[in-house]
Amino acid sequence: MNTLLSVIIIFGLLVFIHEWGHLYFAKRAGILCREFAIGFGPKIFSFKRNETVYTIRLLPLGGFVRMAGEDPEMINIKPGFEIGLVFNASRKVSKIIVNNKSKHPEALVVQVEKIDLEHRLIVEAYNDDGERIQYQVDERAVLVQDEQETQIAPWNRQFGSKTVGQRAMAIFAGPLMNFLLAIVILIAFALFQGMPVDEAQIGDVTPDSAALEAGLQEGDQVLSIDGQPIDSWEEMTSIIQQHPNESIVFEIERAGEVLTIPVTPDERVGQFGDQEGFVGIARPTEFNLMGSIVFGFTQTYLFMTMIFEVLGMIVTGNFSLDYVAGPVGIYNYTGEAAAMGIFVLMQWAAALSVNLGIINLLPIPAMDGGRLIFIGLEAVRGKPIDPQKEGMVHFIGFALLMLLMIVVTWNDINKFFM
Predict the structure, then answer these.
(1) Same domain, residue pair 274 and 332
(2) Is 234 one of the catalytic residues?
(3) What CA–CA distance (Å, rounded) separates 54 from 45?
(4) Catalytic residue (choose from 19, 199, 251, 276)
(5) Where do the PDZ domain residues begin and end (predicted)?
(6) Mean pLDDT of the chain, nearest integer
(7) Which of residues 239, 263, 283 is at a domain's end?
C-alpha cells in the first residue's frame, strides 16, 4: 500500500507539473486549451473551469493538454445544413445547435449559406422570407452537438496562429517545469535532511552495521585508513568499497583524542554489478540555506549528466534494456525507495522528474522534442510543415513508443518476477 500510494503521489505530481507548464504558457500566449488531462483513456473524473475541462483518465501513463488547432475540429458545418442559433444580449450568436434542435425552442432555425468560425466569425443564412442575413458570432460561442458543448476556436486562439517563439515555449515549458520541480525537491531535501558535504567524517551510523559493531560513531573525523591519509568522503568510500570482507584500520579523531579502530566492511553488489565493500555510514551533512539552493541546482545537473551517459550508450552500442525501466520497474524501484524513508523517496522523485524532462526533449516524434523539431524546421523554412504529414509522423512515433513500452514492461516482469 505504501508503494502504491508513493507511486500515485509521485507520478501524479510529475505529470501534473509537466502538463501545467504546457497549460500555463499556452494560455499566456492566448491559445484556447480545451482539456487538461492526467492519464489516457476513459474519463474517471472531470470538471470545467473557465474554458478548460480538467480530467483524470483511467490509464496512468502520462497526460496531455489539448490545444485548439493541434487537431482538426470534429464538427464541420457545410452550406445547406440546418442549424439553430441562440443569441446573447449583444445579439451575437452564442450557441450553434447542430442537431436535436427541437430540444432548444429558443433557437432560431436557419439554413446555412456560408459560415466562417475562424476568421470573420459569421453565419450567413436565409430566413423564412428567403432573405439572406449575416449573423455575427461571439468569439466564445459554443457548438452544441448531441447536447455536448464545444467552444469555437477563432484563428487567433489556435496553436498555429502564434509565433514560433510562443509555440516553442508552450511545448518546452513541460520539460522545463520538470527540471524546476527537481530543483525545488532537492532544495527541500537539503533544508530538512541537511546538505551532504565532501568531508572525511562519519555521519549517521546504520544499526547492526559493520561500523557500529567496530565502534565508529557519528561525528568521528577520519584521518587515515590503513595508513593512507584521507581528506574527503569520496576518498574514504572509495577505499572502503575496494575492501569487501577485508579488515581495514581507521585512524580517527574523537573529542580531541586520536583512536585506531579496525573495521571489516560487509559485501554488496555495486552500481556496475561488481562486489564492493560498505560499512553502514551516512555522509556528513550541514544545514545552510544558500548551500541548499546550490545543492538543488548542482544535484539536478548531476542527474542530467547520469541520464545522458546512459543515452550515450545507445550511440556507442553498449546499451541494454536492463538500463531502462518501464512502469513495472519504476513501481518496484519506487517501493524500494519508499521503504528507505521519505528523504530517499524525495531524491528518487527528483531523479524521475529530471528523467521525464530529458526523455520528453529527445527528438522523437510524438514527444515534446519531436514537436520542437517541427517548429524549428518551420522557423528555418519560413513556413509550416504540412499538418497531415506532421500528424502522420507523430502517429508513427507514438505507435513505436507504445511498442517500446510493451517490450520494456515485459523485460521488467522477467527481471523482477520470473
Answers:
(1) no
(2) no
(3) 8
(4) 19
(5) 194-267
(6) 88
(7) 283
Label residue 353 exposed, middle or buried (CB < 10 Å: 0-12, 13-18, 19+): buried
298 and 400 belong to one structural domain:
yes
Residue type (1 letter), 248? I
Distance from C-alpha of 166 to C-alpha of 30, rounded to nearest angstrom: 10
pLDDT at 390 over 90: no
Q: CA dihedral in degrees (179, 183, 186, 190; nearest 10)?
A: 170
Number of structural domains in the chain: 3
Please give the grid coordinates belonging to residue 41.
Answer: 483513456
CA distance 354 to 175: 8
Query: Rounded distance, CA 202 to CA 283, Å?
Result: 7
For the chain, helix, strand, coil in percent to 5 are: 45, 25, 30
- Determine which of 154-163, 199-208, 333-342, 360-369 has the lowest per-residue pLDDT on average: 333-342
Strand partners, 112: 125
Tens-digit pLDDT profile for residues 3-15: 778 888 898 899 9
DSSP per position, 213-241: HHT--TTPEEEEETTEE--SHHHHHHHHH
pTM for this one?
A: 0.79
Dist. CA 289–CA 292, nearest whole Å: 5
Give the count of alpha carbons within 13 A of 172, CB side only. 11
Beta-carbon count within 10 A of 121 CB: 19
